[in-house]
Design brief:
By secondary structure, the chain is mainly beta. It contains no helices and ten strands. It has one domain.
Length: about 120
């Protein structure tokens, strides 16, 4: 998937997979990604890496209401994720950058198997 987005500072859902909403926000000078459960009564877990403005960090979060990267001019999110109520995992590999008025978002969201 590839998407161009205006810097409207609103939460946009790219897709929902295995009970997880895969979201992004394009801010005035930055972009960030967010994972949240599709159901308000659920939680989400993720394990992998994120990178903001070229700084790579490991990410391991379980049972969270929301998982978000820090906002930056360039952002990558590469994780395996699942909603707690769903017994399957998905691979989420996203990249994005802010061009100073708009954002470019791209990546793959791949369904996985059970735990």
């Amino acid at each position: 998937m590839t998407r161009s987005a205006s810097d409207d500072d609103l939460l946009h859902t790219l897709t929902t997979i295995d009970g997880v909403d895969v979201d992004y926000v394009c801010e005035v000078a930055a972009v960030y990604f967010q994972l949240e459960p599709a159901s308000a009564t659920d939680t989400v877990s993720a394990s992998g890496n994120d990178a903001v403005n070229g700084t790579l960090a490991s990410l391991l979060t379980t049972g969270a209401p929301t998982i978000a990267t820090t906002s930056g001019v360039t952002v990558n999110l590469d994780v395996v994720t699942s909603a707690e109520s769903v017994d399957t995992f998905a691979r989420v590999d996203l990249g994005g950058y802010n061009t100073g008025g708009a954002c470019k978002i791209w990546g793959l969201v791949i369904p996985g198997g059970g735990s």
